[in-house]
Amino acid sequence: MFTFLSGIALLIIGYFTYGKVVEKIFGVKEARPTPAYVNRDGIDYVPMSTSKNSLIQLLNIAGTGPIFGPIMGALYGPVAFIWIVIGCIFAGAVHDYLTGMISIRNRGAHLPELASKFLGKVMRHVVNAFAVLLLLLVGTVFVSTPASLLHVLMDGKVALGVLIGVIFIYYIFATLLPVDKIIGRIYPYFGALLVISALGVGIGLIITGAPIPELSLSNFHPDHAPIFPLIFFTITCGALSGFHATQTPIISRTTQKEKQGRKIFYGMMIAEGIIAMIWAAASMSLFNGYNGLNEVLAAGGPGAVVSEVSTTMLGAIGGTLAVLGVVILPITSGDTAFRSAQMIIAEYIKIAQVKLTNRLWIAIPLFAASIFLTQIDFNILWRYFSWANQATAVIALFVGAMYLYIAKKNYWISLIPGAFMLIMVLTYILNAQIGFGLPLRLSWYGGFAGTALLLVLFFSAAKKARASRLQLDEPVDNWNHAAS
User: Fold this and answer.
1) Where mainly located (predicted)?
2) Burial, 115: exposed, middle or buried (Cβ in 10 Å; 0-12, 13-18, 19+)?
């Protein structure tokens, strides 16, 4: 249990130490007004409190990621703890903070617009396609997943199609209505449920003295499984996830002051890392080792693990509430996925979203595409999603590095994790069967060579951007009050 508790402690320490370092490097401007006030439109730009924004942000970025990912990652053994802690502090939280803060400085812009400004206009089209595909896949799968869980929970008494229809109806309202009408009102309660259930499981592990394995050379990972690069695509939301870069602009448009950014963006990623640690530890300790966990996963998937852990640690009533929380999680990421997709498309085609009719013109085709996608098998598509998710994270980290380079600040805090994940992204797609299927050693060579080439291009572009004195932060006076 020492490895587990040490990891939790390091995450908390990381927030109060490295989080402050990142905040200081970025340079908060306390007097600078935020888009929530300057662009206030009553739809997306709406000032909300720090506590409310924090819980909404946690649910936006969470989904089932910090639970299902670590459960699957537990198959690698205690090494999963290392990636969660290091990845969360030095990659994921930096990624979320910089994405959110740079967005605040640029009218609450989404990643495609930021990529266009800092990485070149071509990247705007590339990232827009990546982001919309990611969000459409997330939204669609997060219709099917909670509907299936509810169908089982209700013993099949309600038809699966009916449950899917009900969730779609909710998504439509959550996407079209102002952000403070549904999301702003109910998310804080759902966020509290997520935190309480995770803490309940964590405290239960400690009180019962669960046999959480300690990290050692002998159990570094089971059966010599190829940790690199697969673990970085198994545990994502609990350590680093490009999906977060599509969600943070929702809250960058509701943040009241820049000083709140560390708690909202960096802090909620740390909270997600703690949740991931708890579920990874529970999965490693409650099923008699690797083989037992593998059997449960083979029989019922991560949902079966959640049900068993929740009931064991929290009892029948508490366990049911925890499972309901897991049902809620994908719903609360699915609705914001569709909302983000709508906002990104609106920015791309430059259509303001104040009028309901304008929102409908984008939302109707979006939901129609999602309904169509629910009819096909997602197994292959979801494998591509895993890669596209981390590729998006790399792009966001490079945007952050470019911003800091031009500002003559310590850009290494973003470039180092970005370059590391770029190696993994390239190696994975070169080696994987869904990619080029090359031998692993050759894929590693390609990953390092490709990263070296892209770093040369990055520094070349960065020097030109600095020399041209690219405007990092859009002047408040130039902001359009009717922004999309």
Assistant:
1) membrane
2) buried
Mean pLDDT of the chain: 87
**pLDDT single digits (tens) 181-237:** 877 788 777 778 778 888 888 999 999 899 999 988 776 665 656 688 889 998 988
DSSP 32: S
- Exposed e or buried b per residue across 443-468, where buried means at least 16 C-beta atoms within 10 angstroms of its C-beta: bbebbeebbeebeeebeebbeebeee
Q: What is the DSSP letter of 159?
A: -
Distance of alpha carbon 334 from alpha carbon 336, whole angstroms = 6
Is the preceding peptide bond at 229 cis, omega within 30 degrees of 0? yes
pTM higher than 0.85: yes
Q: How far apart are CA 13 and CA 17, in angstroms?
A: 6
Q: Which CATH architecture has domain 2-391?
A: Up-down Bundle (1.20)
Do residues 344 and 133 touch, judged by C-beta distance below 8 A?
no
CA distance 322 to 62: 15
Amino acid code (one letter) for 179: V
Count Cβ atoms within 10 A of the Cβ of residue 428 and give its class: 0-12 exposed, 13-18 middle, 19 or more buried: buried
Q: Which own/partner pairs from 382-387 qualify as long-range (CB within 8 Å, at least 24 positions apart)?
A: 382/137, 382/141, 383/432, 383/434, 384/434, 385/133, 385/134, 385/137, 385/138, 386/233, 386/236, 387/233, 387/425, 387/428, 387/429, 387/432, 387/434, 387/435
Q: How far, in Å, CA of 91 to CA of 240, rounded?
A: 6
Q: Are 143 and 334 in contact (CB under 8 A)?
A: yes
The position carrying tokens 């979203």 is 353
What is the C-alpha separation between 243 and 232, in angstroms, rounded? 14
154 Cβ partners below 8 Å, 6+ apart? none
Residue range 345-365, pLDDT digits in tens: 888 888 887 788 888 888 888
Q: What is the pLDDT of residue 127?
A: 87
Contact yes or no for 212/202 (Cβ under 8 A)? no
